[in-house]
Write a structure and sequence with these properties.
Number of strands: 2
Radius of gyration: 20 Å
CATH architecture: Orthogonal Bundle
Shape: globular
CATH class: Mainly Alpha
Number of helices: 15
Strand content: under 5%
Structural class: mainly alpha
CATH topology: ABC transporter involved in vitamin B12 uptake, BtuC
Distance between the termini: 18 Å
Oligomer: single chain
Largest sheet: 2 strands, antiparallel
Length: 320
């Protein structure tokens, strides 16, 4: 009997997502005890899920990047730019499917530019994206003239369905689940994913084994740009307006979601499921602060604390 319990505990320690799962359940329990039914009422839970969906969609790409030993600081700016480009395309009379396609291609293109510049200039992507973050956000401000873009028709499936619910669940959550499943299959069950993690584990050894590092780097950054674009389109569908301030600070929450979820910052392994749980944790914390009548700005402070706490809890549980 003792041996069975020991084996079960050993398996539990091997779960990368254990730290974020413990943290998520603890925070939910604390908020339930503190604010009661306010927290668990269906409308509030749906609001949490919708907020987590944007972080979750982008965390899929961030998990892939971090597992390769890369990082992208421009994802919030890409979301903003795609949000504005799609809104402007709709305003100019483009059919909804074409406008959405233009937006998604913009996101993928931004990611491609990030990867291509990193390879061409031979500098880390964190430096490249620190610069392109300002470029993309500046382009969004220029296109929108620093004002919301909302003077376009809302009579399309994008706004009728994309900004509402499907089977009682926000459509953006369904999109997040589809993106997460695709990301999981790519990372854990494809040659691309195995090689990406091999690059993050030991880039030099991966290069000697014949893996084309520049190609994989550009591909991973392009995927990151694409999922940021998907999140940008879903934000437009929900808000029904393109805003040049949408996506500000998202890079912190997305990176935090991936790291809290168990993806190694140094590269070599990643977990999409952990990234989704991390996004839920961030959304729960931000929602809880509002319910407790704290300033929303405390969300950034608490996010940093939770990063440390979740990683520490996960490490402690695995050692026991």
């Amino acid at each position: 009997m003792t041996g069975e319990r020991g084996a079960g505990w050993h398996r539990l320690r091997g779960i990368d997502e254990i730290g974020v799962l413990v943290a998520l359940l603890s925070v939910c329990g604390l908020l339930w005890l503190t604010v009661g039914d306010q927290f668990v009422r269906p409308s509030n839970l749906l609001q949490i899920a919708r907020q987590a969906s944007s972080y979750g969609i982008m965390s899929v790409g961030m998990v892939l990047l971090l597992s390769m030993g890369e990082i992208d600081l421009s994802i919030g700016a890409i979301l903003t730019l795609v949000n504005i480009v799609t809104a402007v395309a709709l305003r100019e009379g483009m059919p909804m499917p074409v406008a959405v396609l233009v937006g998604l291609l913009t996101g993928a293109g931004c990611g491609f530019v990030n990867g291509w510049l990193g390879v061409l200039l031979r500098i880390p992507t964190i430096i490249v994206t620190l610069g392109t973050m300002s470029v993309f956000r500046g382009l969004a401000l220029v296109l929108s003239e620093a004002t919301p873009v909302s003077n376009f028709s809302k009579e399309s499936v994008l706004f009728d369905l994309g900004g509402n619910t499907l089977l009682g669940v926000p459509t953006s959550v369904w999109v997040m689940l589809v993106v997460a499943l695709s990301g999981h299959l790519l990372l854990q069950h494809s040659v691309f994913g195995w090689r990406a993690q091999a690059i993050g584990s030991n880039a030099q050894a991966a290069l000697f084994s014949g893996i084309p590092l520049p190609r994989y780097r550009i591909a991973a950054m392009t995927i990151m740009g694409l999922v940021s674009g998907i999140a940008g389109v879903m934000e437009l569908a929900f808000l029904q307006s393109g805003s040049p301030t949408t996506g500000q600070g998202y890079e912190l929450f997305v990176i935090a979601s991936a790291i809290i979820g168990g993806t190694a910052l140094a590269g070599g392994r990643g977990t999409v499921a952990g990234g989704i749980l991390g996004a839920l944790l961030i959304a729960v914390i931000r929602n809880g602060l509002v319910l407790l009548e704290f300033s929303a700005y405390w969300g950034t402070v608490v996010t940093g604390v939770v990063i440390i706490a979740a990683v520490a809890i996960g490490g402690f549980v695995k050692k026991q």
